[in-house]
C-alpha cells in the first residue's frame, strides 16, 4: 500500500475535481470548503487561477514529507466524511466561505482504507503542458 499519493485536480468551472480510475473515481469534486482552500493554496504556491483548463498535481500523505505546503488535522465526522482544519500557521484562510475548514468525503477512504487520517499533508506542483 502506498503512503504517498498523487492526483491531478482540474477546474470544472465551479470546483476542483479529479479522476482516479485505479480506485474507481471519475470527476470526484472537492466541495464544502476543500475547494476554496485548494484554490488559495494553488494561487499562493503556483500563481494558478481558477479558470477552465487549470490543473495541478496534488501530492498527499497521512505522514509529513519534505516541502509539503499545508497540513490538515481531522475534526468532526459528517455524512461519512470528516471536516479538516488547516494548521498552516504561515497563512490565513479565515476570509474563505468555510474559513480554515474543508470537508473530505468518503472517497478519501479509497486512498486510506483504514479510515480518514488524523493528519493530511499536501503539496501542489505545476503540470507542464
Features:
three-stranded antiparallel beta sheet; 129 residues; mainly beta; 10% helix; six-stranded antiparallel beta sheet
What would your notes on this structure say?
It comes from Synechocystis sp. (strain ATCC 27184 / PCC 6803 / Kazusa). InterPro entries: DUF6717 (IPR046562). The structure is a single chain. By secondary structure, the protein is mostly beta strands. It has one domain (4-126). The chain is 10% helix and 38% strand. The protein contains one helix and nine strands; from the N terminus they run ββββαβββββ. It is globular. The termini are far apart. The model has no long low-confidence stretch (mean pLDDT 90).
Question: Percentage of helical residues?
Answer: 10-25%
Structural class by sheet pairing and helices: mainly beta
Radius of gyration: 14 Å
Quickly count the helices.
1
Q: What is the element string, with H for helices and E for strands?
A: EEEEHEEEEE
The largest β sheet comes out as:
6 strands, antiparallel
Summed over residues and divided by their number, the pLDDT gives a mean of: 90
Strand content range: 35-45%
N- to C-terminal distance: 30 Å
- Summed up, the domain count is 1
Amino acid at each position: 500500500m502506498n503512503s504517498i499519493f498523487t492526483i491531478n485536480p482540474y477546474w470544472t468551472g465551479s470546483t476542483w475535481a479529479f479522476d482516479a480510475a485505479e480506485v474507481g473515481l471519475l470527476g470526484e469534486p472537492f466541495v464544502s470548503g476543500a475547494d476554496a482552500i485548494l484554490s488559495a493554496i494553488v494561487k499562493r504556491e503556483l500563481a494558478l487561477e481558477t479558470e477552465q483548463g487549470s490543473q495541478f498535481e496534488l501530492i498527499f500523505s497521512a505522514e509529513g514529507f519534505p516541502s509539503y505546503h499545508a497540513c490538515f488535522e481531522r475534526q468532526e465526522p459528517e455524512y461519512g466524511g470528516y471536516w479538516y482544519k488547516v494548521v498552516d500557521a504561515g497563512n490565513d484562510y479565515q476570509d474563505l466561505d468555510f474559513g480554515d475548514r474543508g470537508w473530505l468525503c468518503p472517497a478519501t477512504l479509497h486512498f486510506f482504507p483504514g479510515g480518514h487520517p488524523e493528519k493530511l499533508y499536501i503539496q501542489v506542483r505545476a503540470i507542464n503542458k
